[in-house]
Amino acid sequence: MRRIRILIADGHPLARMGINTLLSNEPDLEVVGEVAHGAEVELAIARLAPDVLLLEVNVPGLDAATVTRHLTGRYPELEVLILTGCDEERLILDLLRAGATGYALKEESPENLLFAIRAAARGQTWLSSRVARILVRKAAVVPGSPAASRGLSGLTAREREVLALVGQGLSNKEIAEALFISSGTVRSHMNHIYGKTGLRTRAQAVRYAMEQGPVSGSEQGVRRVAAKYARDSSIVRLVEEAEIFLDT
Known about the structure:
The protein is α/β, with parallel strands linked by helices. The protein has 11 helices and 6 strands. Helix 4 links the parallel strand 4 (about 80-85) and strand 5 (about 100-105). The two termini are about 25 Å apart.
């Protein structure tokens, strides 16, 4: 079995040591190096050829978004997984747009971090729950819009069911299977929901479902939808073929 090669870039020695200790217990993961300064990052990548770069955004001498954009362009096989304590919206958006595969906060459990690393190695997006919620809020309806001022009273019972499942992050195919209807019927219901609420995108529908309470989305649903919209510069769509893996 080929092991996933990991480079840790973090300015804090204790953080590097803790991550290294965690990963050393996993038979499929191998820490090939550690760097503490921005000037060392690309040199280490060229020398060690890691599969995944675990990047702390506050590494001294490094602009995280600029470096991520440069590295993902020059080393197409490299996956950059942000691992940081910073959840600033602008930074999250800049890094995902720059090509980061995922964004994990240091508050995550060891199990979630291991899942995120393995997902990143496969090129699959992973987002911490709080990061996902920030992205969904960014993509969703703004206060004062038509959708924000309307309730569920105009929706049929079936449309409410569909909206509830959308709020849980299900695709049209999954909703069809859950309700024993066709995908075409789901699309028709979604068009009616859009028309009655003034919503325009699926991300807005998820946020709308969350705000209505009775159809609030699950953590997994929020992560799934946020991951789909994270990388697009307009935050309203991502290539549909993108394969997204999420923790449960």
